[in-house]
Amino acid sequence: MTANRLDTTLMRRMDALEKIYARIDLEHASFRRSTAERGKAVACPARCGNCCVHFVPDVMPIEADCLALFLLTERPALIDRFFARREDSYARDAACPFWDESKPGENCMVYPGRALICRLFGFCSVQNKIGEPAFALCHSMPPVPGEETRHFTGAARMTELFGAVPPPMADFSGEIVALDPGEAGRRASILDALPSALSRVALVLRLGAEETVPDDDRPSADSIAAS
Question: What is the pTM of this model?
């Protein structure tokens, strides 16, 4: 497989994943706006980062590649930090290695490249055992104004209350699985998935960069033999 083909394949997959991520962000924003307009605001507490403190996300291989690409091209300084904190994050209830306790409200250092579960947490619905959408507030969220329960079930009930059903987790997860169905079963902790993804994506980027070097700038066979 040529470097150009490797690079094209990687970028095509990453572009498709980014489009799914962008739709999630738009649907979350729409849902939050709808709840606020009805006086039933669903929102995280100000400057909260509790979901990162005792949680290390699992990712699919394509998500690990996406985060690796983000780190290598946008936040390379965080790679050393990841490896420095990786062992500590294996401890039970440890924080995500990309959580920054020094910046309340901006805790996630890889926010633009964060995984699906991080994007969906707190603002998504799941399907219960009888096939109805169900939604529960995160334990850190304040109660919905005027509501005693923190659990909501049924499309009709949530539409009446919030004006919309929270984005469905299964739908977005299924779309991401479809991008790389052969690897979908390899979901793993970010601690285990990211190192190999970094190596894989770094190689692709390096080969792609070499392909862009003009032929006139490449060393000749004679010069290599003579050196």
Answer: 0.81
